Amino acid sequence: MRPLQSKRVLITGGTGSLGKTLVKRLLHGEMGQPAKIMVFSRDEAKQYFMRLDYQNRKAATDEITYHNFQQLLEFRIGDIRDFGSIASALRDADVVINAAAMKQVPACEYFPSEAVRTNILGAENIVRAIQEHTLLVETVVGISTDKACKPVNAMGMTKALQERIFIHGNLRCPGTRFVCVRYGNVLASRGSVIPLFHEQIRNGGPVTVTTPEMTRFLISLDDAVDTVFAALTRARPGEIFVPRAPAARMVDVARALVGRRPVETAITGIRPGEKIHEIMVSDEEAVRTVDRGKWYAILPMLPELQPDSCDEGCLQGEFSSAGKVMNLEETRSLLERNGLLLEGDDIVSIPGYAQAHGQELLR
């Protein structure tokens, strides 16, 4: 099946970690060769550097933007917060992947109104534009997070409402299929904890962990893209696709990255808005969650979107990172498969360590 063959694909927030991995795999044609891939974001600097990467150039002047609209990979400056901006981009799209988001928990806590504008009103602008302009968008995939399940912070609350807006979009725009994906921590994505751990190890420590009990679901960027592609291919209107992701204790992630290096781990305490364990499917959702192979599909709550007949829920309770947790060796193996272990077990192999801690360590 090649669902994106000859389709025009719009990726909002396309200069982020997920967006860049999506673009790379779309260009490889594994879902069919798109007619157009449009990267939509408000950051011109990120677009500039992304252009350089795809044109295999180290530097350029204005000419890098010339003939932009004639290219397979097209860049558009815009903001989903602005109705006219996103409506204009949607006119040229068959498939939309909404990766634009405020996703850092502390930022959303200190600026909750900004999180509302991006995560909630941005989604509403997409649905409203399709409805009011009768746009021929075939599918919209909303990118959500485990923090939207039983949310305790502003980021999770706004993402939970984003899910509801997109699911309800199926009733407002009958010609468009709206689906969502929900997943946990993406390994080494921008703003995630592993780059922080790497930097702390390079500086000689300590590696900071909030609490020894804390667990998180861990998936790679490619796993996240696989979930998006699965939803594009298989999800029915209003469904939320959830990967069967492994979970690990964050203290084991830290230990696996430190290895045999003499780097201490410091316990700093839970930050505001954090949970000890994340949940991808709640108890309430478990009864309407069905098996889709490598994924779970949460069926919509709205009766108008529920199938005439469906299997009983395949989960007996919530799908939590506290459930089946990898041990230290399994965690290390996962990080190694994803190329995230620092080279060498000797601490002096870490760039900058000897300079920071004295040449006597080299003897």
Which regions contain 5 or more consecutive residues with pLDDT less than 50? Answer: 346-363
- Classify the oligomer: single chain
The share of residues in extended strands comes to 15-25%
Helix share, percent: 25-40%
End-to-end separation in angstroms reads 59 Å
Mean pLDDT: 90
Class by SSE composition? alpha/beta
The count of helical stretches stands at: 12
The major beta sheet can be summarized as:
9 strands, mixed
Order of secondary-structure elements: EHEHEHEHHEHEEHEEHEEHEEHEEEEHH
- Number of beta strands: 17
CA-based shape: globular
C-alpha Rg, in Å?
A: 21 Å
Q: Spatial order of the strands in the main sheet?
A: 3-2-1-4-5-6-10-15-14
Describe this structure in words.
- Residues 346-363 have low confidence and may be disordered.
- Helix 2 (44-54) links the parallel strand 2 and strand 3 (73-77).
- The chain has 12 helices and 17 strands.
- 36% of the residues lie in helices and 19% in strands.
- The strands form 4 sheets. It has a 9-stranded mixed β-sheet with strand order 3-2-1-4-5-6-10-15-14, with helices on both faces. A 4-stranded mixed β-sheet has the order 7-9-11-17. A two-stranded parallel sheet has the order 8-12.
- The chain is of the alpha/beta class.
- The chain has helices at 17-28, 44-54, 83-90, 105-110, 112-132, 154-172, 193-202, 221-234, 250-258, 283-286, 328-337, 353-357, and strands at residues 8-12, 36-41, 73-77, 95-98, 139-145, 177-183, 185-186, 207-209, 215-219, 240-243, 247-249, 265-267, 279-281, 289-292, 295-298, 319-320, 325-326.
